[in-house]
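Subject: sequence -> structure tokens, single chain

Hey, anyone have a minute? Need the predicted structure for the following. Not urgent.
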Amino acid sequence: MNLNEIDLADIDWDFNAAWSWSAPVRAVVILVSCLVLIGVGVYYDTLDQFAALEVAEKKEAELKTIFELKLNQAANLPAYQEQLKQIKLKLNDIIKQMPMEEEIAGLLIDISQTGIASGLEFKLFKPAPPVVKDFYSELPINIEVLGKYDELSFFLSGLASLPRIVTVHDLTIVPADKTKIGKQSVMLMAVTVKTYRENGTTQHETK
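Reply:
Had a minute. Here:
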């Protein structure tokens, strides 16, 4: 079949007269129609499938990432459990250093006696209301003392040596007499000392 011999101008393009077209023309029309139908099918059906496939591939990648993460977590589970056990032990040790309700008064006396033993003069010793946290309460004490540098150092060191947890906050030191500033001059130290009490009456048990 030689398509060059077909004169398109002589063809009656009325589809009702398609039976009169020559075989080459009918073949070309059928071929073009098939290509058009295939193109329409690809556009309306296959492209949606390609989009769905792309979404599925992205989902597969996400699931693989999640699976690898879970696999690593499962592999590290014994180490995590050991770390959790150590954290619980440390927490229990800390809680044991918190004074019980009946020990608070004795601890306040220990703090004041530590200051007196360091040679300090108390200007203020005022326990503040408790500050409730998650499982414990802060018990702040506002303190102002007069003393020399070495006496102040002995006092702070003594607080750290107490058997119960005592922490130091908002510490300021200024000369008590600004006209006598020197190494051995008397200093005024203002500080908030905090101890801690567990909320509840029982200590945590480590399992």
